[in-house]
Amino acid sequence: MSKIPESSRGWHSLAGAGVYTNLSPEDIRRAINSGELAAYEKPLTYGRKPGARKHVFVRIKSADLDMWLESQPRVVYGGNGVKEVETA
What we know:
The chain has helices at 14-21, 25-33, 62-71, and strands at residues 2-3, 11-12, 40-43, 56-61, 74-77, 83-86. It is of the alpha+beta class. Helix 1 crosses helix 2. The protein starts with a strand and ends with a strand.
């Protein structure tokens, strides 16, 4: 993961990305871990005590989410209830 710029416009947390895409945060995390979706990390910069665990916030760009969603197959249900998969 790359470091996130200081500006947070157009960026989402895992939960926010889930809301943005109407998917679960676990689905988003799987896409990140598989390398399908780019993610960036932002270390916690305040309130850390020496020797404490490092906390990192994961952020995802809206543009990356849009491109990832466009690359995913779509499931379309026909009038007779038959499921068809469309690929991008």
